[in-house]
Amino acid sequence: MGLNTKISGVSRRDFFRIAGRFGLSSTLLAAGGAGGVMSLANLASAAESTYEKRFAKEAKFTLKFGAAGFNPENLLIERAGALEFARDLESRTDGEIRVEFIGNNQICGQVSCVEKTQQGITDIYAASTQNSAGGAPYLNVLDYAYMFPGRASQYHFLYHPDSQKLLRDPYEKRHGLKFLFSHCELRGIQLGLAWQDKPTVTNIEELFGTKNRVTGTQLGRIAMEALNLNPVPVAWEETLDGLKQGLIDGAETWASAVAYANMSPVVSQSVDLKFFCGTEHTAMSASVFDSLGGELQDAVMESAYWAQAHVQAANEAALVKTVGHSDPQLPGTIFAENNVRNAFLSDAEIKKAEEMCSPEYQPQLWEQWRERLNGWSGGLDTYQDIYNIAREVPADMKPENVEPRRWWKA
Q1: Is 176 found in the same domain as 37?
Q2: Which residues neighbour 21 within 8 Å (Cβ) at sequence distance 6 or greater?
Q3: What is 214-241 written as a DSSP string?
Q4: In this structure, are 305 and 373 located in the same domain?
């Protein structure tokens, strides 16, 4: 299970005893709904009422949801919305759709969840788009360097009607998957313990020559090579050990990923390079979606919209109050407790990095992939079109102030 008993207040053994009685999904949904410390009796009672609600009538469809390494505890750190979506969908359809939530890498991991859904082993999956890009290369479309100036621009794009033609439709057509919703952060370099006694990074030159873990994204590697960050492919599950043993200097990922994956004890500085997307998305098999019929399809879309709006607000709050990704840093947060320093770079340093690696300034580095993605999109200029949408909102807009829109309704 990998339960964090400090948060849940229930031991692993007791959790499984309750799950044995009411089923793992009912127990996980009950624990996720509680949002913090629970006693054994409270969890048992919540699991029972969740079970009774979920099984009050025969489900027409039971959908298997493979959620990489997620569980109710770490979904309170990185607010990816997976459990909220499952709970809302069951409630919205009065139990006609039942979701079996399988997290903790039990059915699939960050890299394999996409393939398990493509193979029909699961019906829904949650993992980062960057790790999923190996199995669904069109997801690279989100990873052009410095295409998004901030988290607000990412949310604005996901709500935008043009996200259909630029992201969702080609992804469905090429890979048989329906992009539902995503959390939004931007990636930086999370430096290991060798940087503990060094001054906080203030310029990008200090990172040149370091060796850093890279995800499954092909486009992310282009940016890292241009920034002299020596990308090394390391599985997400092995990154913690790599940092601990000093095999790598750092890892490209985002702040709440460090916190949820219990990586904070081996990270000393979180350098907010903001150089490309960190998007923990949830997607569904398009053929399963098509088999649901009109009314239930509408329910899936409404639950996806609800989950997207929930994630937008909840993750922004969690970044400050739970993770500690702010200046000043709040005491009692995961970063503060583990002495992880935030290295927020100046606008001038970010601009310098952008000029070194983005398609705007270094178009030749991106030509091959840009042409490929444009072809897959049916001839759109993927980079320029998403870049323009991303700049429809002010660069300094607070992400929680972006207006939620139902993207499938123009």
Answers
A1: yes
A2: 44, 47
A3: E-S-HHHHHHHHHTT--EEE--HHHHHH
A4: no
- How many domains does the chain divide into? 2
Q: What is the pLDDT of residues 230-253, one digit of tens each?
A: 999 888 889 989 998 889 999 999
Portion of the chain with pLDDT greater than 70, in percent? 97
Residues 6+ apart with CB under 8 A from 108: 66, 68, 115, 116, 121, 122, 125, 127
User: Does 197 share its domain with 314?
Assistant: no
Query: Is pLDDT above 60 for 69?
Result: yes
Cα–chain center distance at 344 = 21
pLDDT at residue 1 in the model: 40
> Which pLDDT score, from 0 to 100, does residue 44 have?
82
Q: Residue written as tokens 């409270």? A: 42
Same domain, 195 and 177: no
Please check whether residues 159 and 190 belong to one and the same domain. no
Higher pLDDT pick, 53 / 153: 153
Q: What is the domain-level CATH number for residue 195?
A: 3.40.190.170
- pLDDT, position 14: 83
**CA pair distance 135, 56, nearest whole angstrom:** 38
Structure tokens, 177:
């998957």
pTM of the model: 0.91
Does 380 lie in the same domain as 338? yes
- Concatenated DSSP letters for 298-323? HHHHHHHHHHHHHHHHHHHHHIIIII
Residue 363, classified by CB atoms within 10 Å of its CB into exposed (0-12), middle (13-18) or buried (19+), is exposed
Using CA atoms, how far residue 274 sits from 58, 134, 147, 220, in Å, is: 47, 22, 10, 12
Is 56 strand, coil or helix?
A: coil
- Count of alpha carbons within 13 Å of 207, Cβ hemisphere only? 32
Query: 3-state SS of the chain: helix, strand, coil percent to 5?
Result: 50, 15, 40
Distance, CA of 111 to CA of 134 (rounded, Å): 7
As separate numbers, helices (DSSP H) first and strands (DSSP E) second, the chain gives 19, 13
Residue 65's identity, in one-letter code, is F
Domain range enclosing 124:
5-184+279-320
**Tens-digit pLDDT profile for residues 80-96:** 999 999 999 999 999 99
393, β-bridge pairs: none
Q: Are 258 and 343 in contact (CB under 8 A)?
A: no
